[in-house]
Amino acid sequence: MNRKTLVLPAVIGLLTPVLAACGATDSAGGSGDAIVVGTTDQFAASEQAPAPIDPAYAYDVGTWNILRQTVQTLLVQPRGDGEPEPEAASSCSFTDTGNERYACTLRDGLKFANGDPITAEDVKFSIDRARSLKADSGVFALLSTIDLVETKGDNEVIFHLNSPDVTLPYKLSTPVAGIVNPDDYDKDRLRDGFQVDGSGPYTLDAEVENNELVRAVFTKNPNYKGQLDPKNDKVELRSFASADAMGDALKSGDIDLMTRTMTPEQITELSAAADSDIDVIESAGLEIRYLAFNTDASPVRSTAVRRAMAEVVDRGELVSKVYGSQAEPLFSLVPAGITGHSNSFFNKYGEPNVAKAKSTLEAAGVTAPVKLTLHYTTDHYGSATKTEFELLKKQLDDSGLFDVTIKGAPWSTFRPAEQEGEYAVYGMGWFPDFPDADNYLAPFLDKDNFLGSPYANSEIRSKLIPESRRAADRLSASESLAGIQDIVADDVPILPLWQGNQYVAARDDVTGAEYALNAASTLQLWELGRGRSD
Q1: How far apart are CA 382 and CA 59, in angstroms?
Q2: How many angstroms separate the Cα of 399 from the Cα of each of 358, 402, 448, 449?
Q3: Minimal CA–CA distance to 432: which of 60, 17, 40, 57?
Q4: Positive or negative, the Cα torsion across 468, 469, 470, 475?
Q5: For residue 455, what is the DSSP state?
Q6: What is the sign, positive or negative, of the torsion defined by CA atoms of 65, 262, 383, 403?
Q7: InterPro entries in the record, alphabetically (predicted)?
Q8: pTM, whole model, 2 decimals?
Q9: Three-state secondary-structure class, residue 468
């Protein structure tokens, strides 16, 4: 059969995908072998991060994709785009006009996978635990507007907030708010290793080698009660050392589907194949990439140095030479397609301008060339990251204003070093916790931000972020959100680079691949099944 590329449209907010290729047949996923999914995500337990998949610690797209299969939350983000929907809860709503009191009623008969009943006290324990442990990943900050968790009887949970927060339902749909069994999780310490015990649609059997999770087998949980409808009995997530190895496994039939992170070359090759049993699904993505700055470190403690970099970097060249049509330049922390997006960096700096950057440095008394080291992770965002940083180095060096060295490190050492403030400039990516502008701003700029950034702006933290969270109609928050983005463009604690589409490649007997990723890049393994192809 002919392979077809599926390009899914994006508008203000992302549309739910519509199947437009082969494989749209009755699912036979309830029987047969496990569906095998490939990823280049690496899952390692280390001295710095001994508890990589504890919900109170995990805070990257890979570990969250393990938790979303196994640990149930009160609400869940839908398969496409839209408001969070009840999951472990039967209903949730704000109960006051000020959006400061939020109440959820649990579904009847909820159980953990081991058969233990779930009560409101278990929900309170789980969320209070994440808030009190304050893991250095920074994930607890998602729950920062919760002041008190109250229970009424066995089935009602009430959240009292310290300030209005209309984004709370989204936050309660993320793994940090996952419900865990107090018998398995200590309230005072993280749970080391790769065991997960929850009430999600699957249980986890982890195969570990040298403190790394190499294979995760998800088996349908017979005690699961929620709104998800698994189309299979078993899914295996297999970690590969490289995108090339993962691609070879897909072509040979050793795996059925691959997701992040494919290389630009793989996507182009598979999309151009005239006759193949592999389908490529493309959808508008909300992933962003950016340079982050330790604003206490020399030489980037100087705002002029950061502004000059913003005036030199050519996003258009970066995208066209490295990612092609798979990405587009980004001029704000908030990507296009999200309500509240503003092209603040373009509005301030316009097209790349070396003469303007030279004037910026001279006015601040900064002598060129400025020596910089740009750090990047070699194994977390795909192999194209190295090429991207080689081009960034060239752009900055060619200006004559900078003398750049680039250094790569595996994520297992890169992330702890970044958190410890060892890097002055470093490259990061962001997959949204939920598709709202708040989640592209607060995690970077608020107190206890996940970067551990020393940058602090009182207007953003004390006025604009709280103000934006009061607006239930997100269009009404646009003025506050634009104000935050304008301040970021002026101070440049972060330099946004590009936003990318998301891709899945699947063998054509796999059904549901068009729903394998939702708008927030959540891996939805329960959507996958097997069926005959046309």
Answers
A1: 18
A2: 9, 7, 36, 33
A3: 60
A4: positive
A5: -
A6: negative
A7: Peptide/Ni-bd, SBP_5, SBP_5_dom
A8: 0.89
A9: helix
- The whole-number mean pLDDT for each consecutive block of 10 residues of the chain, a chain of 534 residues, reads 38 33 36 86 90 96 96 92 92 95 98 98 98 95 97 98 97 98 97 96 96 96 97 96 95 94 91 85 90 97 98 98 94 95 97 98 98 96 94 98 97 92 97 93 94 95 96 93 98 97 94 90 94 57
Cα Rg of the chain (Å, integer) = 23
CA distances, 480 to each of 83, 98, 146, 465, 487 (Å): 21, 18, 22, 7, 11
Residue matched to tokens 């990405």 = 327
| Cβ 108 vs Cβ 116: under 8 Å | no
In terms of Cβ atoms closer than 10 Å to its own Cβ (0-12, 13-18, 19+), residue 478 is: middle
Output the DSSP codes for 288-344.
EEEEEE-TTSTTTTSHHHHHHHHHH--HHHHHHHHTGGGEEE--SSSPTTSTT---H
Bridge partners, residue 291, by sequence: 427, 495
- Cβ atoms within 10 Å, residue 11: 9
* Strands 370-377 and 402-409, bridge-based pairing: parallel
- Lay out the sheet containing 156-161: strands in order across: 89-94, 101-106, 156-161, 146-152
What is d(CA 333, CA 336) in angstroms, rounded to the nearest whole number? 10
The Cβ of residue 125 has, within 10 Å, a number of other Cβ atoms equal to 19
Looking up tokens 């078993």 gives 234
Task: With residue 354 as reference, give the H or E element that holds it.
Answer: helix 354-363
